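Question thread 4412

I'm putting together a teaching handout and wanted feedback from people who do this every day. The idea is simple: show students a protein as raw sequence, then show them the structure tokens that encode its fold, then repeat with a second protein so they can compare. Below is the first pair exactly as I plan to print it.
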Amino acid sequence: MGDTVCDITIIKNARIVDAESDFYGSIVFSEDGIIDIARDSSDSFESRFPNATVIDAAGKTVMPAFIDMHVHFRYPGQTQKEDLVSGSRAAAAGGVGTVVLMPNTTPVVSSLEAALSINEEIKRIGLIDSFQTVSITNGFSGNDTSHLDEVCRAFPAVPVITEDGKDVLEASVMEEAMRKCAEKGIIVSCHCEDPALVPTAKKLRTEKRFREAEAVLADAENTFTARNIDLALKTGCRIHIAHASTKAALDAVARAKQTAEGQKLVTCEVTPHHIALSNETDELCAELVNPPLRSEEDRRAVVEAAVSGTADVISTDHAPHTAADKASGACGFTGIELSFAVCNTTLVKSGIMTLSKLSSLMSAVPAKILNFKKGRLLPGYAADIVLVAPDEEQTVDSASFFSKGKYTPFNGKKLSGKVLRTFHRGKQVFIVS
């Protein structure tokens, strides 16, 4: 890129942090990408680009925008919960530049055409990028994978498929899907949960026997995590273990990664709420989310997995619902606007990990998994950038969320870390009011 690029932005006097860097300096970028980064002084940038917009960060922190590999925007068919505009605005407000969208909508997203259409609609909105997944089985039928033939032919148009919200019951069907995806390198994101145990858990939840329901769902997660890893190793398919939440499930991932084949094929995510919260109190035990909040032992295992690399990424499982749906027992939290603050508070401010490590989990590694040039602050990389104040405290007020979903267990809590500005492809798409 030359010095004649239009609409250039310089952020100076900033702490520059990504997966491998942490220093004070300046960054210059445009819609074409990151142009340059300098330590300490921005004087050369301002002389090179006299017409640039200059932002004085005053010591605040510039990071790569976050990449969320597990998001529900409820489109099509559930726009009372979320829509593409409200979801995009919520993502931008949370410093998220790219989302991977789940297909459990109305109707289920099962076709290449539907997935690409949603991506195009989000592109026109212009706040974030998206990768809409398609379902593993056609219409969540549980037995038909014929639609994957078209998806595979069009690879890499749809890089991830998933049955999220449930799992494929029959191992033979999951194996068939994995064999198709293995040929192209498509990732199968696995909501690891034995569907045969779900009715029992739902009944227990209805009876408010939440700890018993959690124990049943722990068994459901553990057994199908092991099954899906075994099928991936058998078929040579790349899999991504979604929202891992138990020590046993994470141990299974760790064992798989001890093998050369497992290191190549298996990735794993954990969520901010499973990092920060356990079910040790009756109030938290009653929170409805799937997977449920686990024991303190499990929570510590989730944190350790994020530190050790067993968990590759942090994803929100952003699951907005209406107030009426939550009152009726809908599972899920609104999370995309708080992911940085929750993780920064729990992991970085506590001294468990560095801000660079958090950037790796939320930006660099998901970009690597999805195979695109984002997630780092380097010349030539996409100018998806967030300016944050890691030390600034905020009291969560969910009524102010851009998301239509207002329910979060963090409402009213004090968190450290605030998103001040978000840039998408060099354009400012959010500034804190």
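The second pair follows. I'd like the answer to focus on this one:
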Amino acid sequence: MATDTDTYQRILIAAESVVLAQGVAALTFDKVAKAADVSRGGVLYHFKSKQALVEAMVERFVSGFETAIDDLVAKDPEPIGRFSRAYIRASFEPVVPGDLDRLGSCIIAALNNEPDQLEPLRAQHRRWQKKIEDDGLDPVTATIIRHAVDGLWLGEAFTTNKLAAGMRAKVIARLLDMCAAPAKQARSA
């Protein structure tokens, strides 16, 4: 039998599928209920408003990305630049399950009209910035890397500035190289 937690997650996944298939404007409790195979009342039991549903979607998006970063940090033996490399990889490599990039762009686009709902994402970005600055690299260089990553991700997510595959791979490789310990950077120059 499904638990409340299972139903809650199923509703969130259904909401994501509605957004991905039909856009944020199509996000209604009726469509989410149908996609989740629950009643409209079941959706309302877990989410008192569309705003609460969108907030939970943002939280799930941020949590998935954060988990991907943490997993990559744990696998990286080189401490200097470790978080920055994980941030790059989590942004571009298929380490996050599902269609999280497209979902993230849909959610961000929707929340652009309701900036207060972006606060959890803003708060997470402040935490990531702190980790970037404390990553053992020059904080300015690390910040430039992060903003380059964010810009490339947004360009791809919104399909406004998609690089050719070869150039994309070279840019990502260069960003990863920039995260190497200073002694390793000098040797590779």
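Top answer:
Good format. For the second protein you could add a caption like this: The chain has a mean pLDDT of 84. Residues 50-75 form the longest helix (26 residues).
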